TrEMBL record:
The protein, known as: tRNA threonylcarbamoyladenosine biosynthesis protein TsaE
One BP term from GO: tRNA threonylcarbamoyladenosine modification
InterPro entries attached to this UniProt entry: Acyl_CoA_acyltransferase, GNAT_dom, P-loop_NTPase, T6A_TsaE
Cellular localisation: Cytoplasm
Role played: Required for the formation of a threonylcarbamoyl group on adenosine at position 37 (t(6)A37) in tRNAs that read codons beginning with adenine. Is involved in the transfer of the threonylcarbamoyl moiety of threonylcarbamoyl-AMP (TC-AMP) to the N6 group of A37, together with TsaD and TsaB. TsaE seems to play an indirect role in the t(6)A biosynthesis pathway, possibly in regulating the core enzymatic function of TsaD.
Classification via PROSITE patterns: GNAT (PS51186)
CDD domains in the record: NAT_SF
PANTHER family given in the database record: TRNA THREONYLCARBAMOYLADENOSINE BIOSYNTHESIS PROTEIN TSAE
GO MF terms held by the record: acyltransferase activity, transferring groups other than amino-acyl groups; ATP binding; metal ion binding
Length: 301
């Protein structure tokens, strides 16, 4: 089956209205009742005109939808639903992924009902964390990934500096990218933004290096997980800095370093999709993925 998620406007009001009624009409009775069933096509059209929305289709049939509403740097997902016949087919997850990819802000937020623990668990499983609760409503949020171009090494260092100016003691940054992608170059910029001592070079031959702060800020622990048997070995190294008091950057850390902290910053570096002629620059794209409550409220360019 072909699943397609597309952005829509007021022209899709009838479609979204039908999905909302089918999805919310199949939910168990709530007290007080959810007001989604009282939505009119006209009000949905107004919401779509103001903030847009998403419609998911399977083999051309509309099976999922959500409204999107911008509030400062937060994008709210409203009337998020999947028709009963298409549940457990990945439709809801595809809607979330698309919303995160197009959200024009720093956070995506939803409101769920506390009487529906499976719904809350769904959002938590997609990286959302509870930020407020006023019975019977539960607010959940997730920081939005941001993708930046890095046409050359200077741009890569500049992006690293952006991250370095936003991290603090105890933060974990996990770098992913193929050999030569620019992970160490990125870390050089991060170290500059953090204000640490010493030249940042690849930690491949020493497993980990500690760069003390030039001021009162945290040190930088720069580690290479490629040669570690497990991330627990970081704690066994005789480092001159506590990981709780330093900013830890782990190259090749995907699948290994995540256990160090509930919140982390994943930085994924990839060669740009466009063709590059021989002798020209080898551009990259850098995707910064904030994970966990720590990164809520952090603004990105």
């Amino acid at each position: 089956m072909t699943l397609v998620v597309r952005r829509v406007g007021a022209e899709a009001a009838d479609t979204v209205h039908a999905v909302v009624r089918a999805a919310f009409g199949a939910r168990p009775p709530l007290d007080p009742p959810a007001d989604a069933m009282a939505e009119s096509t006209e009000r949905i059209a107004q919401a779509l005109a103001a903030g847009g929305g998403l419609v998911a289709t399977l083999e051309g049939r509309a099976v999922g939808a959500t409204l999107m509403a911008r509030d400062d740097r937060t994008v709210w997902l409203r009337r998020f639903g999947v028709v009963p016949s298409a549940q457990r087919l990945g439709v809801a997850g595809a809607l979330v992924a698309e919303a995160l990819s197009i959200a024009d802000g720093d956070e995506v937020a939803v409101v769920a009902r506390e009487e529906l623990p499976a719904t809350i668990a769904f959002w938590q499983g997609h990286g959302f964390v509870e930020t407020a609760r006023t019975s019977p409503h539960v607010e959940l949020r997730r920081a939005v990934p941001h993708t930046y171009p890095a046409p050359d090494a200077d741009a890569m260092r500049g992006l690293g500096r952006v991250v370095g100016e936003r991290v603090r003691a105890g933060d974990l940054v996990v770098l992913a990218g193929e050999l030569g992608a620019g992970k160490t170059t990125f870390t050089q910029g991060l170290g500059a933004g953090l204000g640490v001592r010493g030249d940042v070079t690849s930690p491949t031959f020493v497993i980990a290096r500690v760069h003390p702060s030039l001021g009162s800020g945290p040190a930088l622990v720069h580690a290479d997980a490629y040669r570690l048997g497990g991330i627990d070995e970081l704690d066994d190294l005789d480092l001159d800095a506590s990981l709780d008091e330093a900013v830890t950057v782990v190259e090749w850390g995907t699948g290994i370093a995540e256990g160090l902290a509930d919140s982390r910053l994943e930085v994924r570096i990839a060669r740009s999709a466009e063709a590059v002629e021989e002798g020209e620059l080898d551009p990259r794209t850098v995707t910064v993925v904030p994970v966990g409550a720590r990164w809520l409220g952090v603004s990105w360019p």
